[in-house]
Every structure is written in C-alpha cells, then in structure tokens.
Amino acid sequence: IRELSTIKVLGFYDNEVTMYIYRETILLTCIGLIVGYGVGDLLYRYILYVVPPDNVMFNPALSASNFLWPFGVIGIITLV
Question: Rounded to whole angstroms, how far apart are CA atoms 75 and 29?
Fold first, then answer.
C-alpha cells in the first residue's frame, strides 16, 4: 500500500496505478507458471524414480492436456 501511495503522490493517475498492478500480477503469474512447470517436472521425475511405475496404477506418460489444463485454470483465475 505504501508503494502504491508513493506512486500516486508522484502524480500517477488511478488508471496508471491500476495498470501497474495488473502488469505486476500478470508478470508474476507467468514467472510462477514457468517455475512451477520446471519444479513440477523435477518432482514428477523424482517420484517416478522412487516409486517405479510397476508398483503404481497410473500411466507415467504426460500428455499436452496435463500442461494445458493447469495453464488455462490459472489464466482464468488471473483474469478474474
């Protein structure tokens, strides 16, 4: 709140401050998606290494929908 107050005192309009918040939110969402996919992939590989697929009843292969669904859900939440 102090940062936004400082920006407004410096003469920025309300719309500029709002766009500043939106840009920061979208940027942090994109960074979070990239880091999340990277760390998630490492964790997925680790789990498959520790628990061999023979002992677990799931398909270890990843499809495009495994990446698109979370991306879409997070995108919708960000837009809302």
Answer: 8
Query: How remote is the C-alpha of 13 from its chain's centroid?
Result: 29
Number of domains in the chain: 1
Residue 56 to residue 50: CA distance in whole angstroms:
11
Q: Which helix (H) or strand (E) holds 69?
A: helix 65-79
Range of 20's domain? 2-79
pTM, rounded to two decimals: 0.73
Contact 63, 10 (CB under 8 A): no
Contact partners, residue 16, CB within 8 Å, separation at least 6: 7
Q: What is the pLDDT of residues 24-71, one digit of tens each?
A: 999 999 999 999 999 998 998 898 888 776 766 777 777 888 889 999
Say how far apart CA 18 and CA 33 lie, in whole Å. 23
Distance of CA 34 to the CA centre of its chain: 7
